[in-house]
Amino acid sequence: MPPEKTVPTAPLKAKISPPPPPHGEAGTIHPGSRRLPPGEQVERVRTHFDAIAKRYDLMNTLLSFGIHHLWKRAAVRLLGLGEGEAVLDLCGGTGDLAVLSAERIGPSGRIVLYDINRAMMEAGRGKSTHAQERRRILYIQGDAQCAALGSASFDAAIVGFGIRNLTDRVAGFREIHRVLRPGGRFVCLEFSQPAAGGFRLLYDFYSFRIMPLLGRLIVGSGAAYTYLPESIRLFPSPAELAVVLEEIGFVRVACRRLTRGIACLHGGMKRE
Fold first, then answer.
1. Contact 220, 241 (CB under 8 A)
2. Pick from 40, 48, 100, 208: most CB atoms within 10 A?
3. What does pTM read for this prediction?
4. Is the pLDDT of residue 26 over 60?
């Protein structure tokens, strides 16, 4: 069995370049209900995650009633990881998906967690659970829209609840395609919107009323949890996202709805 990789005492820091122009109206993006210039969007997202980093995992568990753990396990199962593979967890945050991936690829595999927010990575590194897997994760701080990672260097890539926060999500998907080896697999776990009806009305009430209230009470930031449902509203539908992924070059693109459409698994692979 090869020796464990030595992990730096702090995340490596890639050069963080200004984000590329967003798709759509030049020079503006829509993070929620407000129109902001790209630079302000980047700062808003960074401030949002700095504010909630220490209680991010707790809030996820409370707000989803623990279901997010099931979603994440389903995402990693869909990726179909094998012993010794190289895996990228893009926008990996506190590392839940990276830990689950590390369990599947074993000590001979390689797992890289790439995220722009240092506070989130540090919160994950400091957790006492799955300590052995966390020691094997290589943490790199950088912009997912122009990742400092080699082309065709990963067997699989996964992104969970992160691509939605990019100024240019298409650039993020293109980077995933670039770093995958031919035949490499990709899974995106992201929030979605339930179909219209009574459940949708209940979901909207919970998202726009209850979640911000809990955010104020537990983490002292109602704004952080107002941003979340707003950003979900603007994320493409599964059908729209499938078109984007196919245009980038992914094949075998598919989607699986979770918990009546609250979240979705989007998958594909790079052509061999």
1. no
2. 100
3. 0.83
4. no
Domain positions in the chain are: 36-56+65-191+237-270
Please tell me the predicted confidence (pLDDT) of residue 28. Answer: 38
Rounded CA Rg of the chain: 18
Q: Please state which of the ranges 51-65, 75-89, 113-127 shows the lowest mean pLDDT.
A: 51-65
**Vertex 163 angle, CA 161 and 165, to 5°:** 85
Q: How many CB atoms sit inside 10 A of residue 188's CB?
A: 27
Rounded to a whole number, what is the largest CA-CA distance in the chain?
54
Give the integer Cα–Cα distance in Å for 121 and 43.
Answer: 17
On the question of pLDDT at 18 being above 70, the answer is no
Q: Are 191 and 72 in contact (CB under 8 A)?
A: no
Does an H or E element contain 86, and which? Answer: strand 86-90
- The tens digit of pLDDT for each residue in 164-177 reads 989 899 999 999 99
State residue 4 phi and psi, 5-degree precision. Answer: -65, 145
pLDDT digits (tens, 9 = 90+) for 99-112: 999 999 999 999 99
Pairing between strand 180-191 and 154-160?
A: parallel
132 CB burial (10 A radius; 0-12, 13-18, 19+): exposed
For domain 36-56+65-191+237-270, is the CATH number 3.10.150.10? no
- Residue of 178, 115, 123, 124 lying closest to 142 (CA atoms): 115
In this structure, the dihedral spanned by the alpha carbons of residues 191, 188, 113 and 68, taken in order and rounded to 10 degrees, is 40
